[in-house]
Amino acid sequence: MSPRAALIDGYSFEITGKDTAGLQDVSKLLAPATCVSIAFIPNENHDARLAAAATVKELGFHPVPHISARRLGSAAELDRLLALFVSVANVDRLFIVAGDPDVPVGPYEDSLAIIRSGLLSKHGIRKVGIAGYPEGHPKIRNGVLFEVLQEKHALLTAAGLEYDITTQFSFDAEPVIEWIGRLRQAGITAPIRIGVPGPASVKTLLRFATICGVGASTKVMAKYGLSIRKLLNTAGPDALVAEFIRRLDPSKHGSVCLHFYPFGGVGKTAEWIRDFLASHISK
Ligand SMILES: NC(=O)C1=CN([C@@H]2O[C@H](COP(=O)(O)OP(=O)(O)OC[C@H]3O[C@@H](n4cnc5c(N)ncnc54)[C@H](O)[C@@H]3O)[C@@H](O)[C@H]2O)C=CC1
Ligand SMILES: Nc1nc(=O)c2c([nH]1)NC[C@@H]1CN(c3ccc(C(=O)N[C@@H](CCC(=O)O)C(=O)O)cc3)CN21
């Protein structure tokens, strides 16, 4: 494997319950033991999330269920859900996020509340993923995001839990590279998974950008190959990933790899990864 492919080697992948059959179809294209996250989206229930985790495990991958703090009704619900993830899919890692609701439906306001609950250790969780926002968050001030990141670092480290940071997807490498540099300067050495979109139509990418609160200036859209006059065109992360390969320096930016958000296109994303690795392996 060339150093150019090192960024993509160790990549992770994200699905929803509805992508399970699609993942089965392309499972041979993905590296064994890939971390596959299961998003906690509002129109799916726990049964769908559990079935997805079980399939991910059966296919030889590591299931990484998302836990959305604000969408949980009670501590008992979280306790039961974690027990089920362990029993149906041997889950030992989770991605903990606050979630999009403006008002929490139950007792957990944010991901720190889940980390503090003690339930992770109770269920044998050893690795935790948390979110990072190189371009900020529409509802959370940058100062708060940074303080919370440092608090999570302190709490997770003190609890003896390994953790990594997955970034919100982005169409622009510049702010992501800058943000990684700032984190490293602040002494945060955790592995970072850079969120990148899989290949999808311009229409799909813009719809998900809206759903997830990700902005895209005209300049950034043009650089990524997104034209609002050509909504049916497909745009892939080729140039974005090439820029990361060109500019990331392991001695300065530490452990960094890619996290793919396929936005419904699990097959297309898996093929993109296979083709990318094939074209970089000998270079
Ligand atoms: N990056 C990802 O893959 C995903 C991101 N999200 C987004 O995550 C956001 C924050 O999650 P974390 O980074 O875990 O934050 P967090 O749990 O670390 O919270 C940081 C601070 O922001 C506040 N906050 C969190 N969510 C909020 C919301 N929806 N509205 C207003 N204030 C909020 C919290 O009260 C806390 O003060 C969610 O709002 C959502 O937009 C949701 C699912 C997946
Ligand atoms: N703010 C925010 N919320 C999230 O839930 C989220 C992020 N950001 N960033 C990255 C990932 C992407 N995730 C998502 C978000 C929504 C769907 C979703 O709603 N899917 C719908 C289809 C929506 C559509 O096609 O318009 C579905 O039914 O699968 C899937 C994955 C979860 N994550």
UniProtKB/TrEMBL annotation:
Pathway participation: One-carbon metabolism; tetrahydrofolate interconversion; Amino-acid biosynthesis; L-methionine biosynthesis via de novo pathway
Obligatory cofactor(s): FAD
InterPro entries according to UniProt: FAD-linked_oxidoreductase-like, Mehydrof_redctse-like
Keywords: FAD, Flavoprotein, Oxidoreductase
Taxonomic superkingdom: Bacteria
Catalyzed reactions: (6S)-5-methyl-5,6,7,8-tetrahydrofolate + NAD(+) = (6R)-5,10-methylene-5,6,7,8-tetrahydrofolate + NADH + H(+)
Family statement: Belongs to the methylenetetrahydrofolate reductase family.
PANTHER family in the record: METHYLENETETRAHYDROFOLATE REDUCTASE, METHYLENETETRAHYDROFOLATE REDUCTASE (NADPH)
UniProt name for this protein: Methylenetetrahydrofolate reductase
